[in-house]
Amino acid sequence: MKTIIKDSLILFAITLVAGLLLAVVNQITAPKIDEAKKKQKEEACKAVFVDASSFKEVPELLEDADVVAYQATDSKIQCTEVLAAYDENNNLLGYILNMTTKEGYGGEISFMMGVRNDRTVNALSILTTNETVGLGLQAESVLLPQFENKNVGTFKYTKMGSSAPDEIDAISSATITTNAFVNAVNNGLGLFDIIAGKGGAF
To answer: Domain extents for the chain?
Structure first.
């Protein structure tokens, strides 16, 4: 009995110390991780809206009833954040949508997309991806530039080589990744239409 109690106390002490050490490590690293995420978001915002001087989060736009209903139509694609982009004179240039899609070959893909007031897609910037090295990971260099400065109703991907502004040339052997981005961008444009139709945020 004494041995059992002794072993239990030792195990409890080890668990307690390990827990305290983890708490200390977390307290030290959490601010650094948060700062890194903040920096990554700022860089992504500038990448998709290079002429903007400031950005403002507008969470109330995602709480709008029409936006909520729109997002409920496709659980695989969600906009998790909306930011308004302003010039140096505080004029609204457009919006940045933080899109997440579960349709990637390797799972979730998150990216920022900048959309100007006239519905032109400025650019896209990947935040996280688990796509295949050498295939899906070509998205940043091969796929994303195809969306830049395009103003179309909706995008579609093709395996035959793009011949129209609304066509996105699929990455060879990575059509799932291509389709994931095309669907998510189209979803973001639909969301932008709702936001713009309501007057947006000023």
So the answer is: 49-197
CB atoms within 10 A of CB 45: 20
What is the Cα–Cα distance from 156 to 183, expressed in whole angstroms?
A: 8
pTM higher than 0.90, yes or no? Answer: no
Is residue 197 pLDDT above 60, yes or no?
Answer: yes
Token pair belonging to 85: 């982009």
Q: What is the CA radius of gyration of the chain?
A: 22
Which has the closest alpha carbon to 150: 188, 177, 180? 188
Q: Which residue in this structure is represented by tokens 């030792």?
A: 10
Tens digit of each residue's pLDDT (9 = 90 or more) over 76-111: 999 999 999 999 999 999 999 999 999 988 888 999
Distance between CA atoms of residues 109 and 116, nearest Å: 22
pLDDT tens-place string over residues 20-34: 777 777 776 656 666
**Whether the predicted pLDDT of 68 surpasses 80:** yes
Count of Cβ atoms closer than 10 Å to residue 132 Cβ: 16
Average of per-residue pLDDT values in the chain = 85
Contact 114, 144 (CB under 8 A): no
CA distance linking residue 69 with residue 190, whole number of Å: 12
Class of residue 98 by CB neighbours under 10 A (exposed 0-12, middle 13-18, buried 19+): buried
